[in-house]
Amino acid sequence: MCGIVGILGTQPVAGNLVDALKRLEYRGYDSAGVSTVENGVLGRCRARGKLRNLQSRLEEMPLKGHAGIGHTRWATHGAPTETNAHPHMTDKVAVVHNGIIENFKSLRERLEKAGAHFETETDTEVIVHLISQALEAGAAPETAVQSALKELEGAFAIAIIFGGHDDLMIGARRGSPLAIGYGDREMYLGSDAIALAPFTDRVCYLEDGDCVTLTRTSVAIKDENGHPVDRKISQSQASAMLVDKGNHRHFMAKEIHEQPEVISHTLAHYVDLSRNRVEIPDFNIDFATLPRITISACGTAYYAGLVAKYWFERYARLPVEIDVASEMRYREAPMQPGGLALFISQSGETADTLATLRYCREQKQHIASVVNVRESTIARESDAILPTLAGPEIGVASTKAFTCQLTVLACLAIRAGCERGHISSDQEMELVGQLLEIPRHISRILHDEKLFEKIAHDLAHSRDVLYLGRGSSYPIALEGALKLKEISYIHAEGYAAGELKHGPIALIDEDVPVVVVAPRDELFDKTVSNMEEVAARGGQILLITDDGEAADSFSTASNFILPKAHSFTNPLLFAVPVQLLAYHTAVFMGTDVDQPRNLAKSVTVE
Ligand code: F6R
Question: What positions carry a catalytic annotation?
Answer without folding.
Answer: 2, 601
